[in-house]
Amino acid sequence: MRYAIRAAFFDFPARLIDAAQASSHARYIEDGVLLIDHGKIIQLLGWEERTQVFDWEEYEYLDLRGKVIFPGFIDTHIHFPQIGMVGSWGEQLLEWLEEYTFPAEIDYQDRAFATEMAAKFLDQCLENGTTTALIFGSVHEGATDALFEAAERREMRIIAGKVMMDRFVPDALCEEVAESYQQTKNLIERWHNKGRLSYALTPRFAPTSTPELLTAVGQLKQEYPDVWLQTHLSENPQEIAWVKELFPDHQDYLSVYHHYGLTGPRSVFAHCLHLEEAEWQCLARSDSAISFCPTSNLFLGSGLFNLRKAHQHNVKIGMGTDIGAGTSFSLLRTLSEAYKVQQLQHYALTVAEAFYHATLGGAVSLSLDDKVGNFLPGKEADFIVIDCEVTPLQSLRQARCRDIWERLFVLMTLGDERNIRQTWVNGRCAFQRHDN
Known about the structure:
Layout: E1 2-11, E2 27-37, E3 40-46, E4 60-71, E5 73-79, H1 93-106, H2 111-127, E6 130-136, H3 141-154, E7 157-161, E8 163-164, H4 177-191, E9 197-203, H5 211-223, E10 228-233, H6 237-246, H7 253-259, E11 267-271, H8 277-286, E12 289-292, H9 294-299, H10 307-312, E13 316-319, H11 331-343, H12 351-358, H13 360-365, E14 383-386, H14 392-399, H15 404-414, E15 420-425, E16 428-432
């Protein structure tokens, strides 16, 4: 339970006011030692500093020199019941939901199936270096129980919720408002703040929510003010036009959610590709967060996220893989796509900013930065051990890098799940990659 781990380390010791200036606030220790005691970080030191506090008899020593240790990746938008439909061809958002998503989610009414898939889903997260996630469940109470049970066994920190929706979905997924309210309430009582588990109210998006359902979501948010709220916002032009038809009395898409009290410090809105100026201002005023999901935005042809605009309005940003419109659990792959999306808009996303959004920035966006996201004393010991040279091409490029920034940029653009050698959760190794 007590470890002293020697390696190189990279993190951000403090929350950034301006994420675009991340490079000057990062911490890189080329030869350091991380001290862990019963799941908590005691201290991160340079190796030469260890004699001040280090007692060899108190810690199990692990020598991981040649590897770089990061805080665990934080996925701020991912769908548990969509693991089995990743890579489904064709269509944009609304058609894609009808063709693939809803049929896949119907299967989760089978509790045994949901239990099997929950294990596979969370194991994929760990294999890809994700230690914390904000997760959409299916509409089924039992499937959400299965997800929480699987996370509890793995000691993972997750925030999750069953989807709430009461119109424009297949009959097998359509709820009555009273049923949705009661099942959500049951889940909150069972799982919220149980160990490392937390609950998120999860209306799928405005089109599948009647005003009565959104009223019920708002009521639950008032009854349980420390729960999270997650939903989709402004992903697709057709979706936005549909919301305007369904809610003609509201100024814009976000004002629908805001009207029902669903914005705030623990509210996370996925996508946000086509926001109007008033929506940016509302996100900033309410201290809401955005999940940037570049892989799925490209896959569905939804649009390009304006990261520069988010900075201008000082809106919190986290990264989301958005499995299953997203095509990989890997946040390394996701960051690579984020770089390309910003290039198309003439914004040069630095590697420091990218890794900030995937670690401490993600924790800030989820209001978890007091618990995870860096190596400060007292934080939960969630981290990943990365090998920057797992392919011949990576080795060739790493040998030509002049500094740590070039090395990390090569990792980000050429890396994937194979670079994750170990994933530690709550002070124990939860995943270790074995070479074939």
